Request: fold
Amino acid sequence: MGQTQHTENSEEIDVKALQDMYKKFVMECPSGVLFLHEFKRFFGVDPTGEASDYAENMFRAFDRNGDNTIDFLEFVAALNLVFRGDLEHKLRWSFKVYDKDSNGYVDRDELRSIIDSIYRIKKGTKTDMSDSQLTVDEVVDRLLQAVDSDGDGHINMEEFIRGAQQDPWVLNMLKLDMNPAGWVLEQRRKSAHF
Reply:
């Protein structure tokens, strides 16, 4: 029987699950920081599997100070966003996942890389993809057309947020990123290291 905590947007946080994650964090990272390879192991991600690229992008988004490690405060801040953040905060976080080089813009290559990772994860987990008839390049083209309002081939954070808020298809294409909690919990269930 796990305790749950209701947040202001009525999502539940399983206190026991958070306590278990903290215990695992301390056990796996006695130094107090997670490196990328430990992050992948922590969530049971095969270093070369379909979720590897996505995990790397999540790691980068969690690493707020850019030191290539995640300390427990960054970890807690990320979990807080994942479990309690509103749509705009989650979109801001998703933008950071997409903006691989952290230059403030998502270009076609970055967009293609993330969409390809999402497709591989969904295919690997047999997740139903309502838009599976579209290729990765078709999805990228459609996203750029829907979101890149000034047509410069780059998506800034404002365009990214506005596009996702205004177009249900765009938001649906970001679904995996919009539910990092679900992805994290799914990886934890798959992990044999728990």
User: Anything to note?
Assistant: The chain has two domains: 15-84, 87-125+134-174. Residues 40 and 55 are 7 Å apart (CA to CA).
